[in-house]
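[audit] Reproducing an earlier prediction to check determinism. Same input, same settings, fresh worker. If the tokens differ from the archived copy the diff job will pick it up downstream; this log only records the rerun itself.
[audit] input (275 residues):
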Amino acid sequence: MTGGLLGGLRLTIASWKSRMIEIKTPAQLDAMRAAGLVVASALAAVAEAAKAGVSTAELDELAEQTIRDAGAVPSFKGYHGFPASICASVNEQIVHGIPSRGQVLADGDLISVDCGAILDDWHGDSAVTLFVGSVTDAEQALSDATRDAMRAGIAAVTPGARLTDISHAIETSVHASERAHGRQYGIVREYGGHGIGSAMHMDPFLPNYGKPGKGPRLRVGMAIAIEPMLTLGVEETVELEDGWTVVTADGSRAAHWEHTVAVTDDGPWVLTAPE
């Protein structure tokens, strides 16, 4: 298996028609919320610790300890051979960055941290982009645009909508940010969101772009990880020789935001939002 199967799932749209999509009961969504709160706590701890002079391996150890202290299990560690509990993607790294002692954060770095946890057999998955010290206005705008796109996607999660209504909302938000910021962003197309529940990665695959009105209808009890990834340059990506780390093809910086979201009669329920 390649690294394309971790956070930022890489699949094909054909899976919409070929596989079943898991529908959760209210009790099961409650269990997913508990797992989501563990992920939120781990990311909060990492955000507090992500300072110049700290290695990404130290951040990984902190996240794993936070998850295990809550009685949960890191869902990334050992997943298809991935060696860590978080993905720590620094600067031009988009997703799947492997934490290491040699990757020491410095002032001006941008780091996207993706984290998953399993609690009572149910999964939570979320990602944030963090800054170390001072950053440029362009990098701040990049993260803001990515987070706004995620929020737009979340707002499109309503019963009866089509899957690509979420995709279209994400892309529309990116273009609105481009107009507001006076620049273009690369929308990473090879990786996107995914179903989640009793497994970390499930159908359906969710593109971060596209026309509305396509794909399966959203039903109460579905849960989807919504995770746009944007770059300050081109959308093309390169997977490094480690088989995991995905970087921008032009070396530009990237941002990644993600939440696990449930479809309910009352609208989207962000299962990985902090309490």
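[audit] rerun output stored. Observation attached for the diff report: The chain has five helices and 15 strands.
[audit] end
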